[in-house]
Amino acid sequence: MKRLLLAILGASMLCFSSAYGQVRDWRDLEEVHKHIVEAIHEMERARAANHYDMEGYGARAEEALRHAERELHEAIEASRAHR
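Now predict its structure.
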């Protein structure tokens, strides 16, 4: 289960970091945002499948994903405002 959590977080961070260096406009950020939201849904399914018993790691990973989602949302709004 820890491998699944690490894979989800790693994929999310990879998506974010690869898009971070190549942002051309807010649409790029929206694509990354979409992947983060998908990762959140995957995390919710994984936690439910394990009856939320992941020794707190699942909750922390989900919170990190939600924090990344909020930050990306703010970045998208800021990018749109500067157009």
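The radius of gyration is 14 Å.
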